[in-house]
Amino acid sequence: MSLFERSPEMEGSEQNLRIQIYKAYLLEHTDDDLVTDHYPPLGGEGEYSDYNCSEHCGCDQIPSQDDCVVNRHHFHYRNDQNGIQWCCLITDIASEKILPKFVALGRCIDEMNWMLERTYFRPESIADVIAMAMPEFTPVSFQPKQFSLQLQSLVLAREYLRQVLSTLKLPTYHYKQFLYLQNCLVNRLGTPAALAKFVLPGLKEPRFVSLPSAIPYFPYYKSAKSTIVFGIREFLGGLPPRFVYNGVFQSKFELWQLLFELSVYNREPKTDVGLNYIHRLYSYLRQLDSDTEAIYQEEDFIEAKRLAYIAYCEIKQVGNITELDCYRRLV
Length: 331
Description:
mainly alpha, two-stranded antiparallel ribbon, 12 helices, globular
């Protein structure tokens, strides 16, 4: 070993330090994020608690031929114009392509793969890398009417199932639950097994644990246990996180998935898109030292956060009074 060669232990500790710094900024847990005891945090790594596997969750028994569907990292969401946006920051798009094993869905799968390939701009030169780092760069969105009715139906079925499954009071969501739900679709609705795999949420899609009510009586007893809700939890009445509000991230879904990689996989981003968002993050932080427009935008966010916090406290107080009144009547 040379005098200046770093040991694997040193490289590992430096990587862990960078990961912790990334998470501190993105979770708004740093001093310059102006988060105090008066502002509830925007959720920490606990938002990803359900992704930790247990001994009997079944995730180690996923058939190899189904892994690309069940464990897919890509998912879609709707933008403000009702366009379809795909999110896939963790793995290379080429490894996310789905093979058309179900013949009836061949065209639909081809269209999905086509969209995935074109969602993110692929840099082929230094100029392309610079262009990706600009705030104006955003992933491509797609209008549903551009594609077949079969694909539109599949997308709607996925969105509908996310809502339905959020009401089933699932205690967790791993392959054991995925397989149970797949069998329900097959045996009760006659859905082909291959199609059921496509419409159910993947195990890496956004979800969170809904906290139970403190009062186990009607009308609150229905939420007396923690349950899984598909989507991303809203804080302060839906105020976007700091780096979504100021345009560093295209949406809260890209931010969620980058934090997923940092928190669940405990690794630095590997894809061009993930590294690009890290670069944009630090570029914005540097702009706050001298760029007047960035400073004004940050002040606007602080004011929006203050107003959202006031509204949050008012709603919470009214809700607490209502629950307390109901509780007193019952006991």
